[in-house]
Design a protein that fits this description.
- By secondary structure, this protein is α+β, with helices and mostly antiparallel strands.
- Among the domains are: 152-322, Penicillin binding protein transpeptidase fold, CATH 1.10.3810; 372-413 and 421-446 and 476-555 and 565-714, 3-Layer(aba) Sandwich (Beta-lactamase).
- It contains 24 helices and twelve strands.
- The strands form three sheets. Strands 2-1-3-8-9 form a five-stranded mixed β-sheet, covered by helices on one side. A five-stranded antiparallel β-sheet has the order 5-4-12-11-10, sandwiched between helices.
- Helix 15 (432-441) crosses helix 18 (496-506).
- It starts with 17 loop residues before the first helix and ends with a helix.
Length: 752
């Protein structure tokens, strides 16, 4: 029987043994790892349905079950958490390294911690008046140190309540406070709250500057931590209260209490303590003597914070808010600060570098200083607009040169420029006494006749104020009437260089130009040197040095400087002093300063008005005081015809009347009086040297050649108006000098 074949696509041979087993290990396409070439390529053709007759149907991949999905989700979540933990650890490590690096860098820019110590308080300069009262203070620390136990308990608690509520629980830096301040500032879109602790503020005040940088803030943090380790909380709080700034130049609670309330910090009330604590936020803006409303509003916030912290009861807070017991000292123009600045300029010459707190005793009379300040300020307030005068200065000194009052300007807060010491202005006719004294020393007398008529000096034609001339006049009349032509003629007659030497001999230290116009006061001088140069007329002819400091001592009482009595020398012969006083007394009786009335006192002086009415002066004196007043403008602009016989005389009279109340009357020196009299009363015999023989001799020698006349040949120095009559040329000099002033009143209509 033959085997039949099955018709098929091919013959399948039977497999036996190993070959059969290997054939079953073939990999299907699904078991292969796909390579890059095996990835399916996208086709732009539309995909055919799976049941297309030209393609075999695709083999579908079985879907994973629900349990498989959960396993994969858990594995992925764990992977993410692990990676997050890993990178967090890496970033934390780097952050720690960065923080350590910053700390090292900041520490490297600080002094060695071992060398840090609480710095000494900078020296305080306390300036006291003639009666021992404090006039002003200079230096960064104006108040004395006060112990924490000596203060009322609510005073330090006020600072803790408003500045650092967690003071006793942190270690120099308060992270909670910083976070709270940051949130508050973000919500208010600005800096409305600070996060610095009291310790940080103290570190900044002791060791650092006030610059607002990250580096400074980091240094502040390190130093605050160091302070907390070095000192107790009580020590830190005491240091803080004695070093913090309270505005108006006051450092420390003691200085602030004295400055604002006129009392010690040991005696402040709860309301005053709250006001002091409130100042720390913005001392310049909230100073109660400048902004009482702002200071009061801030104090109420502090009182509420104290009540909230249970430092005071609600009843105490309400009582202090409803009925505050403030006694704030008002802030004024503070013209005594001109004196303080002047003293500061001479201290280095007297005691050298100041390394400890000192007390400077002065010749200033606080009562006279107040009167001088009011006289200048009130007169300018009433008439500055009318006469276009914006500034003034006043210096009053005793005949031996001790300054009793000085006003260097209208308001120290607005301008610290001292017009009494630093500024130099043309004195105008107030310089003429030096011309007349030179003439007297050359042999002329108050009754000597000179011509008041037009004069021409190489094209320069000085004129009198009214363009009128009175012919023959005595020197007394010419000086009291302030006639320019006579002064110029006298200057040429005695020589300009002689006039300059006379002025320098009497105390003028400024450079003076020896030309014909010197007779009209065209060279600039300061108020204090002009007043000092008039002092010899009041004391009998002795030269003086204006001074204000009598003693400098430490707080412990050690004397560093004591002014020795000056060995005064005779710079004017007494008989010449008597002649000058006779002539200048007439200025107040019938001349340009008739408004300068001082009942019961013999007074003399001279007015001055510079070119174009730029400066108005009056220097007047008694045997008690020599006082000079200047009024004008800082920019040297002309006034509206303000003359020396007007505003300056009014200021002078108001001041001198008050200064002479209750003072025994004394006459000006009129004769040598045998070497005694007023001279022996004013100065000890040891201070007065024997009068030297004058080096000048009356002669008819030719005048010293003149220096060139300043440019501006049309210069006209206007004398002030006078009431002295034009002399009768036919009358004797004695009779002419005694005529009353009725005609001058008719001509001028009043005083200038």
């Amino acid at each position: 029987m033959a085997w039949g074949r099955k018709k098929s696509g091919g013959r399948k041979e039977p497999q036996f043994g190993l070959a059969a087993a290997l054939s079953e290990l073939r990999l299907s396409p699904q078991d292969r790892v796909p390579s890059g070439d095996d990835k399916p390529k996208k086709s732009s053709a539309k995909r055919k349905p799976e049941n297309d007759d030209d393609e075999p149907p695709r083999e579908r991949k079985p879907r994973a079950g629900r349990s498989g999905a959960k396993r994969r989700s858990k594995s992925r979540g764990g992977f993410r958490i692990g990676r997050l933990f890993y990178w967090g650890a890496v970033l934390g490590l780097w952050a720690a390294i960065a923080i350590v690096g910053v700390i090292i860098w900041v520490g490297a820019h600080l002094p060695a911690i071992q060398s840090l110590a609480i710095p000494k308080r900078p020296p305080t300069i306390q300036i006291v008046g003639l009666d021992g009262s404090v006039l002003a203070s200079r230096g960064e620390m104006a108040g004395a140190n006060v112990s924490l136990r000596d203060l009322p308990p609510y005073l330090p608690k006020a600072f803790i309540a408003i500045e650092d509520r967690r003071f006793y629980s942190h270690y120099g830096v308060d992270p909670i406070g910083i976070a709270r301040a940051a949130v508050t500032n973000v919500m208010h879109r600005g800096v409305s709250q600070g996060g610095s602790t009291l310790t940080q503020q103290l570190a900044k005040n002791l060791f650092l500057t006030q610059e607002r940088t990250i580096a400074r803030k980091l240094q502040e943090v390190e130093l605050a931590i160091w302070l907390e380790r070095k000192h107790s909380k009580s020590e830190i709080l005491e240091l803080y209260l004695n070093r913090v700034y309270f505005g108006s130049g006051a450092y420390g609670v003691e200085a602030a209490a004295q400055r604002y309330f006129g009392k010690s910090a040991k005696n402040v009330t709860i309301a005053e303590a709250a006001m002091l604590a409130g100042l720390v936020k913005s001392p310049s803006r909230l100073a109660p003597n400048r902004n009482p409303e702002g200071a009061e509003a801030r104090a109420q916030i502090v009182l509420a914070a104290m009540a909230d912290a249970k430092f005071i009861t609600d009843a105490q807070a309400q009582a202090s808010i409803g009925h505050p017991s403030y006694n704030v000292k008002p802030v004024g123009a503070g013209t005594v600060n001109y004196v303080a600045d002047w003293i500061g300029e001479v201290l280095d010459d007297l005691v050298g570098q100041i390394e400890q707190s000192i007390v400077v005793e002065t010749t200033i009379d606080p009562k006279l200083q107040s009167v001088a300040e009011a006289s200048i300020i009130d007169e300018l307030a009433a008439k500055s607009v009318k006469f276009n005068v914006t500034q003034g200065a006043l210096v009053a000194m005793t005949p031996d040169g001790a300054v009793r009052a000085m006003v260097g300007g209208r308001n120290y807060a607005e301008s610290q420029y001292n017009r009494a010491v630093t500024a130099k202005r043309q004195p105008g006719s107030a310089f003429k006494p030096f011309v007349y004294l030179t003439a007297i020393e050359a042999g002329l007398t108050p009754e000597t006749i000179r011509q008041d008529s037009p004069v021409d000096i190489k094209g320069w034609r000085p004129e009198n104020y009214t363009h009128e001339y009175f012919g023959s006049v005595t020197l007394t009349q010419a000086l009291s009437m302030s006639l320019n032509t006579v002064a110029v003629r006298l200057g040429i007659e005695v020589g300009a260089k002689s006039v300059v030497r006379t002025a320098h001999r009497l105390g003028i230290s400024s450079k003076l130009d020896a030309n014909a116009s010197i007779a009209l006061g065209t060279s600039e001088v300061s108020v204090i040197e002009l007043v000092g140069a008039f002092a010899p007329f009041a004391n009998g002819g002795l030269g003086v040095s204006p001074h204000v400091v009598t003693k400098i001592r430490t707080n412990e009482g050690k004397v560093l400087y004591a002014r020795q009595p000056d060995q005064l020398s005779q710079v004017i012969e007494p008989r010449h002093v008597a002649m000058m006083n006779t002539m200048m007394q007439e200025t107040l009786l019938s001349g340009t300063a008739r408004k300068a009335e001082l009942p019961g006192w013999m007074a003399a002086g001279k007015t001055g008005t510079s070119q174009d009415f730029r400066d108005a002066w009056f220097i007047g004196y008694t045997a008690n005081l020599v006082t000079g007043v200047w009024l004008g403008n800082d920019d040297n602009s002309p006034t509206k015809k303000a003359t020396g016989g007007g505003l300056p005389v009014e200021v002078w009279t108001r001041f001198m009347r008050s200064a002479h109340q209750g003072v025994p009357v004394a006459n000006l020196p009129k004769s040598q009086a045998g070497g005694g009299g007023l001279l022996s009363n004013l100065f000890p015999a040891s201070q007065v040297n024997a009068p030297p023989q004058p080096s000048y001799q009356p002669s008819a020698q030719a005048p010293v050649p003149l220096a060139p006349i300043p440019s501006g040949g049309g210069y006209r120095q206007p004398p002030t108006r006078t009431s002295a009559p034009p002399p009768n040329p036919s009358a004797r000099p004695e009779a002419a000098a005694g005529l009353d002033g009725w005609l001058m009143d008719r001509v001028f209509g009043g005083n200038r």
